[in-house]
Amino acid sequence: MNTAIRVICFIILLSAFSFRAAAEDFTNAIHAYLQHRVEVEKRDVGIVVGIVDEHGSGIVSYGKLDNGTDQEVNGDTLFEIGSVTKTFTGLLLQDMVECGEMKLDDPVAKYLPELVKMPTYDGKQITLLQLATHTSGLPLFPDNLDPSGRTICLLIIRSRSWMPSCPATN
């Protein structure tokens, strides 16, 4: 009986090490890919990839800032991400709809402070679905945008431990 317990414990330890090795292999593969893009393809100067899975979160990075310094990029580096925010927003909206936290037919005004005046489209409140599918009738640029200025959209992820929490995604 004692031998059987030792064998089971040994098997559990081996499997834990193999999971860790697989995670390290995955991280190393990402790092090699980033290095190739920066050093060989010369397509980027610095790249940071965030990884979130059931084991936690982590950052893999390669390269330097493009500001004349030798500072390396890391998990706290700010990047201009522009239109890719639409993808993030759509995924978060889809997750919240699946979790029952929002409905696509909900008016946008439901989630805004009362002081914010949301315009209407064809006399009706604009819905989350219309925003997500770019059918809300809102202008491409706001009236107060200074075209001579540079508009930069930055995404700062402060919580690196976020994971979907609704039953549909667990």
Quick synopsis:
The chain has 170 residues and is α+β, with helices and mostly antiparallel strands. Helices cover 34% and strands 12% of the residues.
Architecture overview:
This protein has one domain. Helices cover about 35% and strands about 10% of the residues. It has helices at about 1-40, 85-100, 130, and strands at about 45-55, 55-65, 120, 125. The strands form 2 sheets. A two-stranded antiparallel sheet has the order 1-2.
Report how far the terminal alpha carbons are from each other.
36 Å
The best one-word shape is elongated
CA radius of gyration = 23 Å
* Count of strand segments: 4
Poorly predicted regions are 9-19, 149-164
Average pLDDT number: 75
- Strand order within the widest sheet? 1-2
State the secondary-structure class.
Answer: alpha+beta
Helix content: 25-40%
The helix tally amounts to 3
User: The biggest beta sheet, please?
Assistant: 2 strands, antiparallel
For the record, the count of structural domains works out to: 1
Task: Please report which band the strand proportion falls in: under 5%, 5-15%, 15-25%, 25-35%, 35-45% or over 45%.
Answer: 5-15%
Could you spell the SSE succession in H and E letters? HEEHEEH
